[in-house]
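Morning!

This is the sequence you dropped in the shared folder:
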Amino acid sequence: MTTLPPPHSTTCAIYGYDAEVSSVEGRYHPRLRIRASADVIGSEVVLSRILEDLSLGGCKFLGPAWEDRGTRVTMVLSFPERSASLPVQGVVVRASRSELAIRFHDLSEKQFESLRDHLQACETRVLH
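The structure's back. Tokens below.
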């Protein structure tokens, strides 16, 4: 299991550069917009849903939430630019009429490294 930086940490260098942690949002990992989708299995099954953003900590989908806050989900992230996929576990942390946000949960070291590699390899844009 991967350990996140301590709450007082102000930078992270996992993408090959230092990224300030947002003091407003308390982010440890920058949110990135990349071409990716996910199959999400929770109380419902949703296939090939396009991601709004993705980080090493979680992801967000736009549109009405189909799961309730606190629901545990299994996801398969798909990266079409790399013809690759990655299974991960998560928990819904925000569910509203406009978005569904999932925090990744219990990523193994291998999953964490694989996700980092996918994020570095895909064309990315840091969101503010």
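Headline: DSSP finds one helix and nine strands in the chain.

More detail when I'm at my desk.
O.
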